[in-house]
Amino acid sequence: MPVFRFADLKSEYVTPKYSKAFGPLLTGTQIEVGRLRFGKGEGAVPHAHPQEQIMVVLSGRLRVILDGQTSDLGPGEGFLAPPNVRHQVQALDETEVLSCKGLVDGRGHRI
User: Would you call 75 exposed, middle or buried from its count of C-beta atoms within 10 A (0-12, 13-18, 19+)?
Assistant: First the structure.
């Protein structure tokens, strides 16, 4: 599907093992992109994965702890988590993010 609308894609809990991220995902052959939501106080527990990940805040505020350093991010700000680097996030408000993750062994966000 070369053209899509996130609003037309099925929403799901995309990383239930680690987080409360909920929203639609679009999966290609090498990358997966999700428009994900976190309720205030929700987030992802400390974890690492073999996929590189970029997350950009679209609305709300997000606290990220990446490799032991804490940053509070707002709209238009984001972070890059290299492969196998421990990180966690917590929504400081109702928050929407764009999360991009490389595919490793055919898997992206669904870990």
Answer: middle
What pairs with residue 26 in β-bridges?
Answer: 33
Distance CA 45, CA 74 (A): 20
Please report how many Cα atoms fall inside a 13 Å half-sphere around the Cα of residue 61, on the Cβ side: 6
pTM above threshold 0.85: yes
Residues (pLDDT < 70) of the chain are 1, 111
| Number of neighbours of residue 16 by Cβ within 10 angstroms | 12
Give me the architecture of the 33-111 domain, per CATH. Sandwich (2.60)
Beta bridge mates, 17: none
The domain spans of the chain are 33-111
Q: What confidence score (pLDDT) does residue 94 get?
A: 98
DSSP-assigned beta bridge partners for residue 62: 73, 91
